[in-house]
Backbone:
DNA sequence: GGTCGCATAAGACTATAGTCGTAATACGTT
DNA sequence: AACGTATTACGACTATAGTCTTATGCGACC
């Protein structure tokens, strides 16, 4: 018995995915989540065999959300579903350990094929993109690992840093003293092997999807 | 009489381009340059109708090089030649005002077609990429304009900032006092409409090609 | 040949970033 | 229960970033 979790903030697209899968793979049990927190909750409490993850979920912060999941559940197979067709981003997604990338434009049959392939342990990519993607970058996944080793607080601080906030503003947002923010910042530097904010921001921005290009 | 300048640091690829073009378009006069400085020199002293620019030239700094050329010669038609097939980067290249993108894998016939189309005033893109690319981002080209308005010194300082250097180190590299670097930094902030280094670094890193993903 | 605008340069000063030492709490291990 | 370890927290201190002011050189323009 195989259970699959669909994590996507768009109810309509969840329906579409469910329809596509139940038609071709009726033996699957399907669960759903609409944001990252409930996704993590369900993964903690239930036995899930495959996660279909949309990067653009509330609380997900794009690639960071995937890193978060990969860190919490290293053994869980994850396939990313996204509207983007940016090959650079897809390369990053695969480097970080996702077992597949399903574009939102994929047909029902493609989606079913992808899920079957990934459940078999293969990596699945859309045909038209597979050449540009297979070059996994060693330095990048090394960096992703380091970022994944950050504690939740450090992680939040890094996100705010990437948005250009001052330590004082970050402290206000997280309701902690500026001194504490600074301590987190120093810890982040040590974990990432760097020594100033600029380098941290660069790493954070390269790990994540650029600001929306729509 | 139409004159075309090939700017590419690889002599072999310059030869290949020249061969492809002289075969299909024998009426063209061809000039060559191997780095950004000689490119600018030639553009200043001669009448060029179209520039074929490789992004990865010495002194070019990827997209910054294109911005530089676009700023110095706004009326000059430019086609970018590059080995990348990253659609996000190609979108940026077009947003910044290039009239075409020619992948290094293009055939001689494709290259000739592209040059003809661009000389006619059209925008040319390789067939297999044209869907993912046409979404020009307004905010992005606005930002690119602002970066293009930086003076040469400010520009260099921004590049060093993006590399994570301290003001002191930047001053050493440019052989000016740290105080002067700070003055440049403040001027950059004003032109870009921001107020700290983190935001400047983010803008710089988004304008440029990410670190090599090969 | 002024003079206006602008890039460059730099010192003095204030604000912010980053380091260090320390303490309290949470959590798994024995 | 006792222990080690990691995380969170924060104040005091130093280094760096960023602002303000002033000065000089240089090309455009009347």
Residues:
């Amino acid at each position: 018995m195989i259970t699959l979790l669909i994590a996507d903030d768009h109810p309509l697209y969840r329906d579409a995915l469910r329809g596509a899968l139940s038609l071709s793979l009726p033996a699957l049990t399907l669960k759903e989540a609409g944001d990252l927190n409930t996704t993590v909750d369900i993964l903690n409490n239930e036995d899930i065999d495959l996660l279909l993850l949309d990067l653009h979920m509330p609380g997900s912060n794009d690639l960071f959300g995937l890193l978060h999941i990969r860190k919490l559940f290293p053994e869980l197979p994850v396939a990313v579903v996204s509207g983007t067709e940016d090959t650079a981003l897809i390369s990053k997604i695969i480097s970080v350990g996702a077992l597949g990338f399903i574009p939102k434009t994929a047909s029902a049959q493609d989606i079913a094929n992808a899920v079957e392939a990934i459940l078999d342990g293969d990596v699945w990519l859309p045909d038209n993109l597979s050449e540009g993607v297979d070059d996994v970058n060693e330095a990048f996944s090394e960096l992703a690992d380091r970022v994944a080793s950050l504690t939740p607080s450090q992680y939040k601080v890094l996100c705010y840093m990437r948005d250009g906030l001052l330590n004082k503003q970050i402290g206000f947002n997280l309701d902690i003293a500026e001194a504490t923010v600074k301590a987190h910042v120093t810890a982040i530097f040590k974990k990432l092997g760097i020594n100033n904010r600029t380098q941290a921001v660069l790493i954070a921005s390269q790990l994540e999807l650029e600001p929306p290009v729509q």
Summary: The radius of gyration of chain B is 18 Å. Residues 179 and 209 of chain B are 30 Å apart (CA to CA). The first strand of chain B starts at residue 3 and ends at 7. Residues 166-168, 178, 182-183, 185-186, 189, 195-197 of chain B lie near DNA strand D (CB under 10 Å from a C1').
